[in-house]
Structure formats: C-alpha cells, structure tokens
Specification:
It contains 14 helices and 15 strands. With about 450 residues, the chain is α/β, with parallel strands linked by helices. The chain has 2 domains: about 150 residues, Aspartate Aminotransferase, domain 1 (Alpha-Beta Complex), CATH 3.90.1150; about 260 residues, Aspartate Aminotransferase, domain 2. It has a 7-stranded mixed β-sheet with strand order 2-8-7-6-5-3-4, with helices on both faces. Helix 8 links the parallel strand 5 and strand 6. Helix 4 packs parallel to helix 11 and helix 7 runs parallel beside helix 8. The longest helix has 21 residues.
C-alpha cells in the first residue's frame, strides 16, 4: 500500500503495519487465510501496543455455560480422563443429541445415528471421506457459497473434487435450475451449505430447503447442512424446546441428510472441540458397495464410525462429551435458554452495521430474498471505489481487521466479512473514531 502524506496519519503507526505486512511474507494480504490474518494482527498489536477491532475470526465472545463446565468437571473427577471413549460416543450424550434435534428441529433421529465429533470440522472431514466415496461416478462436492473456506481446504488435503457457485443471484425458485445444472452431470455426491450462512448471514427459506431436498431425492445426493449457528436467526424465537417455530432444515424434505451441529457458537464451547454429527436413520442404514474400496463394510453409518472417525481420532474428548451432554440436557429440559445468551451478537451487529453505513460503508449482502437481513454473528461490508482485498489492507492501518469475501467463494469481490463476536460494547466508540478517520482519508 502506497501511503500519501495524509494517509500516514492513521490510528496505528503506518510504519509498524507496513513492516509487519512485509515480514509476514504474504504476497497479498487480501488472499490471506483466516489464521494467517490472526497471526499478522497479533504481531501488529504486539509491536504497536494498540488493540484492534478484531473481526477476522469467528470465535465466541461469551463465557461458556456454567452447566457445561460443571458437567465436565464432574466427569473428570470420576476418572474418565484415563479411559478411551467409545468412538460412537457416550450414551448420555447420544441420547441428549437425539432429544435436542427433536425438541429444536422436530426431527426423529435415533441416538445411534447421533455422533460426537472433534468439532464440526472433524464431522465434515469424516462425512466427505465417506459420502464422496459411496459411488464411483459421484466424487464431487457442490458448495452453495459463500461458505467456510476451510471446508474447501479439507478437499485439497483429501484430494477430493468440488464445484461451487455464489447463491446470491439464485434465491427462491431460481435455485432449482442452478442446482440442477450441476446435478444432472451425475458427478455430484454431496451438497453443502451453512444456514444461517457464514459469511453473508442469509438464511434459506422453506421454499429453498424444499428445492434442495427434492433434488437430493431425485439425484440421490447427500446434503450436508452446516448448522454452526444453530437457532441464531434472531428474527424468530427458536429457543423453546418442543414448540414451534423450529430451526429450519432440509431434513423435512429428504432422508439424504447429514447435520453438522457445532457447540462453539450457540454454546460458547469452542475450546473443547466438540460437535455433533446427526445422520438420518435411513441414510445411516443404507449400503453402498463402492464403500468397500476404502472400508471394511458397505454400510454408510458403520463406515462413518468405524472407518472415518476411528481413523481420524479414535473418539472425541471423553470429558467434553459429558460437558456437552449436560448443556443439551438443560436445554432439552427447558432449564437453559441457550439462544437468549447469544442474542448479544445480534445487538452488537446492529450497532456496528449502523456505524459502518453512517461513515460511508455499504452492506454487501443486505437482503434475505425480500426480507431485511437479520443481525447476527456476521455481516458483510464494502467501501465505494475499492475492491475487498485493497480495503482489507487499508483497514489494517486503522486498527480494523476482517477477511476478504473472495476466500469464501463469494463473487462479491468488493466485500469483506466482519465477525462481531470479539467486539465488546466498550469498543464501539473506538470503532466509531477509526471509521471517521478512514472516511476522512478516503473521500
């Protein structure tokens, strides 16, 4: 970045920022992965002594629920740390996961088909390993983007194929034709999307979920629904167990589904690396002869557990399973409103979006079909006349970090993704002053 005399008057010492960018070895900061940006901003903060508005990484900004901590401590004191957990999970947790999807999604899934994983990341990895090997002709994942960049990195690591498209211009009935243009090739094994979406925060409508489910049935494709932000569409109250409305899901329209449910955001339990993989009972029981190329059996569910998960980690943290089970039980019993706790993210997003738009920025993904976009864990923004990668680098000099939408599969190359979780209310005034200074320098 070439700085004019005026631009050198930035909230963070321009020489420090420029030097740390150079030391990072990144040819283009805008192409940096999330973790690379985290490292870079850490280095700048350390050298400058200034605190950034950290919006680059989606980590919880709330304390974990006490009921989970107590459940895990109790398990540790009982001696579980010295014992290997069963790969398919402890019965208490499997039972509570089954209850949870019934209470908050209105789905009937047996405890057998509910599996703990080392975060949703491992759940996705294992699912791709099996789903994309179940048919010799179907070896490709279709990502309905924008989405979580690391899931594509997983494909690179495994040598798996994928295709992708940005859903922004294909909402509603338009989604059917777009999806079918890929599915009719006969090579798509798996469809994956997040709902609510990371990074755009759009939420699929019932019409769209029905379209996805119908096409999954027609072309025998497995749908992986990434529910990392479970029940966090705050435009409706999804917090009451056993009462509608429920978390929207494609599972209402197909049995070819796998659900990735994270404990990281909704339960603020990211550090314990525990997630939930829920497979429809019918898919769990299905047999695919092609699986015997890689696994001891042609059973789908068996291959997930004793093929993929066994090879990846030989089980999920024993004590963390009991911590998650305690939180789920409290939620299932109506004693713990996990949604109410995370509404704080929506409050922060509303304030931050108002600040950005007041000082010259624009919201990139601004509509959910014909509805106003919800305030939640993420939002997207741009600045007139600048591409996203350029904007990202400029903002670093103003003590603001985010990631470029380019790396999420978005075609909106002018935009950045902002995560609100690490921004406390006490930082809003600081954000305001930095945005004012940015606008002064970029009129």
């Amino acid at each position: 970045m070439i700085l004019t005399k005026e631009l050198k008057d930035t909230p963070i010492d321009h020489a420090i920022v420029a030097n740390k960018i150079k030391e990072s070895g990144l040819e283009n900061v805008g192409n940096a992965s999330i973790r690379e940006l985290v490292k870079l901003v850490n280095e700048i903060e350390k050298a400058s002594g200034e605190k950034y508005i950290r919006m680059e990484m989606g980590v919880p900004g709330l304390e974990p629920a006490e009921v989970g901590i107590e459940g895990e401590i109790k398990a540790l004191k009982s001696g579980v740390a010295s014992k290997y957990p069963m790969i398919e999970g402890v019965e208490d947790l499997k039972t509570e996961i089954s209850r949870f999807v019934k209470n908050f999604m209105n789905l009937d899934v047996s405890a057998r088909s509910c599996l703990p994983t080392v975060g949703s990341m491992q759940g996705a990895f294992a699912s791709f390993l099996v789903s994309n090997h179940r048919d010799e002709k179907k070896d490709t994942t279709l990502f309905i983007d924008p989405g979580f960049p690391v899931q594509k990195q997983q494909h690179h690591v495994m040598g798996l194929k994928y295709e992708t498209f940005d859903v922004y211009n294909y909402r509603g009935e338009k989604l059917r034709e777009k999806l079918e243009s890929y599915l009719k090739k006969g090579t798509i094994a798996t469809i994956l999307y997040s709902n609510p979406n990371n990074p755009s925060w759009i939420c699929f409508t019932e019409e769209e979920l029905k379209i996805i489910g119908e096409l999954a049935n027609k072309y025998d494709v497995v749908v992986m629904e990434d529910l990392a932000y479970f029940a966090m569409d705050f435009r409706q109250d999804l917090s009451q167990p056993g009462e509608p409305p429920y978390q929207p899901t494609v599972a209402n329209y197909t049995d070819n589904y796998m659900l990735l449910i994270s404990s990281s955001k909704s339960f603020s339990y990211a550090g314990q690396r525990i997630g939930m993989l829920v497979i429809s009972d019918k898919l769990y029981e299905r047999r695919f002869p092609a699986l015997k190329r890689y696994y001891a059996t042609d059973g789908f569910g068996y291959s997930i557990v004793y093929g993929a998960l066994y090879a990846l980690s030989s089980g999920t943290s024993h004590s963390a399973q009991y911590g998650l089970a305690a939180m789920l039980k409290a939620a299932n019993d109506g004693e713990f409103n996990f949604v109410e706790r995370v509404k704080e993210y929506g409050k922060r997003a509303g304030i931050m979006k108002d600040l950005f738009t007041k000082y010259g920025f624009e919201i990139v993904y601004d509509k959910d079909v014909d509805r106003e976009l919800a305030d939640g864990f993420y939002f997207t923004f741009s600045y007139p006349g600048m591409q996203g990668k350029e904007l990202l680098e400029h903002l670093l000099y103003y003590g603001i970090s985010a990631i470029a939408l380019d790396i999420t599969g978005s075609t909106r190359t002018e935009g950045l993704r902002a995560c609100v979780s690490q921004i406390g209310m006490e930082q809003m005034e600081d954000l305001k002053h930095r945005l004012i200074k940015f606008q002064e320098h970029h009129k």
